[in-house]
Amino acid sequence: MRPQVAASNSQPNRTELRVKAAAMMGDLVAGIIQACCFAPWPPSFPPWLPGLMQILTLAWLARRTFLAPNPSSAFWRGLTFGFGGFGAGIGWVYISLHVYAELPAALALSATAILALGLALGPAAASWLCRTLYPASPPHGTRWAQGLQAIACFAGAWTVFEGVRGYAFTGFPWLAVGYGQMDSPLAGWAPVLGVYGVGGATVLVASALAWSLTARVRWPVALALLVVVCGWTLQQIEWVQPQGQPMSVRLLQGNIRQDMKFDPELALSAIDRYAQLTEAGQATLTVLPETAWVLPWLAAPDAARERLLTLAQQRKTWIALGIPLPVADPWKVAMLSLEDGVTNSVVLLGPQSGQRAQFSGRYDKRHLVPFGEFIPLGFHWFVDMMVMPMGDFARGPADPAPLAVADQQIAFNICYEDLFGEELTSRVELGATILINVSNIAWFGGSHALPQHLQISRMRSLELGRPMLRATNTGVTAAIDHRGRVLTQLPIEQEGALDTKSQGMRGLTPYARFGNRVCMGLSLLILLGAVWQNRRVRSRAP
Hints:
Elements: H1 2-35, H2 49-66, H3 71-89, H4 93-100, H5 105-133, H6 144-167, H7 190-215, H8 219-235, E1 241-242, E2 247-253, H9 264-279, E3 285-287, H10 302-315, E4 318-326, E5 342-349, E6 361-364, H11 380-384, E7 403-405, E8 408-414, H12 421-429, E9 434-439, H13 449-464, E10 468-472, E11 478-480, E12 486-489, E13 496-502, E14 505-506, H14 510-514, H15 517-540
Parallel strand pairs: 2-3, 3-4, 8-9, 9-10
Antiparallel strand pairs: 1-14, 2-13, 4-5, 5-6, 7-8, 10-11, 11-12
Helix pairs in contact: 1-2, 1-3, 2-3, 2-5, 2-7, 3-5, 4-5, 5-6, 6-7, 6-15, 7-8, 7-13, 7-15, 9-10
């Protein structure tokens, strides 16, 4: 009889394990679907569909968090969800490590998985904190005040930890939830609270729906609709006004493969090809991508420098050139010596530029990419395993003034600097009327990193009320208006030139004035209120 008892006792355990495994697989799949809600999206699908799908996947995690038996269980549910989302969303990291850095496939895959797991700590921490601050699970906590506390806790915790991800270790806010709502009514919150605020509103709607389903009450649906309607109403507000006349712009896309970009012969060929594309246009401003020239200015052939300078002087036009430069002296003159360091820069050649390379303007990148432009402490062993040119760049000055082009003020940003909207607010406050991003993410081939980066630039335009022009090596080269709409773009991985016009804007959105302070302040107040309420309830408990 004893073996039979053991068998009967083990059967429920196996069933319970199967149920837990299926639920965990559901968390993983929900995270993967959430990653699919970011760009790219099939153009035949309605634009609001990704935002709706994202809300439903986040509602899944919110409900799983509310029903978790303890905070530890909530943590693992959030971690599984986050790992699925980031693993699918940033899978393009594997391309750069394996294809271009020539790391073995197993090592590149492991590094990508470790990065995804580290990023997944954000959703995990949000679920853990929510479940900690709201210890009662439905149906025991069905009163509206308790439900509102649970809903607000999840949204507030998610927003705070997403903000932490945007700052910690120089920040990596890629795939912040708000980007998935770029074409939904919730995007109306962007000019007020920024991408983190859009993400917080999205999670608030999702958690309200989850609580409605879990506690079987209707009032959270009204709360979710209120947040959506407020976002739609904010979309109707025109926060900024036109500045000057539309400016003609020519955006160049060289489409040079990353593993060939630093070949000496190809580098000279690229310089010549970019000059031809520049000469073929008649725009007021021509923009070349990041490191279109891989040679410092005075190290390039004299004929190439004179060709661009002559073109700018004779046509009374401006040329923005991505190029590595020695650290600037007080007069912003390109020096031959590289002893003081090199910056990843954009130089502006204009009608007044002289033969001694007195630039009309210069922007030096400040927010550098770990492993690409500097090596984090303790990771030299990892970089030594890679077969790729690594830069050790100096940082540019903080809050540089915009550069004047015709009657517009241009604020340049390089590569993934446009992920950090809070760093662009000061440039807009200083008078920038147009934003320009020059980029080279050929490290990731033709992967979904390219349309994701375009989506990020669209959000910056919407937050700050400024058009964003993008000149990239392999894509996506595009013109975006001040409301985040793509006006025109080039196909990825094709050489070409995009001729367009851009209307500069003036005036400040609330986000341009206050940055992330309002959004993060509200989120922290929500969490502090939940902490106070939680202690109050526990002190009254017998």
